[in-house]
Amino acid sequence: MSDDVTEKRRKHRADVDQHIDVVNTMTNQSLGKVVNISEDGFMLIGSGEIKENCLYQLRFSFTVAIDGVSHIDLGAECLWWNETGAGEQVWAGFHVIDIAQKDRDLMHELSDDVS
After folding, report:
1. What is the C-alpha to C-alpha distance for residues 112 and 58, in angstroms, rounded to an integer?
2. Which of 2, 38, 87, 89 is the most buried (most CB within 10 A)?
């Protein structure tokens, strides 16, 4: 990740301990999995089609339920993406722009759990 991307980040992101699948709910296409998370953003690695400066309606599906919940829905904007060294996958950084309060609370809890 480039230094300018790191410097723009306002909140610390922590690595996740569980596999969190990310699906574009508009196309039902898997975009990848969450690598790290904060209460208002996340980075994923994936092979799905991801475009910079685009808005996405996403579902995070948890392998381990949080407070009995197995997924959350949110809207997010892709701020940047870079190909991995092998070029078969991409790293992508997202900013959460729309999320229900109950899902925001779970995302906050998840980011606290991994801090």
Report:
1. 21
2. 38
* Other beta carbons less than 10 A from residue 64's beta carbon: 9
How many beta carbons lie within 10 A of that of residue 65, not counting itself? 11
CA distance 76 to 14: 18
Residue 52's CATH number? 2.40.10.220
Q: What residues contact 91, with CB distance under 8 A and at least 6 apart?
A: 1, 35, 43, 44, 45, 81, 82, 83, 84
Q: What residues make up the domain containing 51?
A: 3-113
Q: Which residue has the tokens 């993406």?
A: 81
Whole-angstrom distance between the N-terminal and C-terminal Cα of the chain? 20
pLDDT tens sequence across 2-53: 444 444 445 556 677 789 999 999 999 999 999 998 878 999 999 878 999 9
The pTM of the whole model exceeds 0.85: no
User: What is the b/e burial string over 2-22, where b = at least 16 CB atoms within 10 angstroms of the residue's CB?
Assistant: eeeeeeeeeeebeebeeebbb
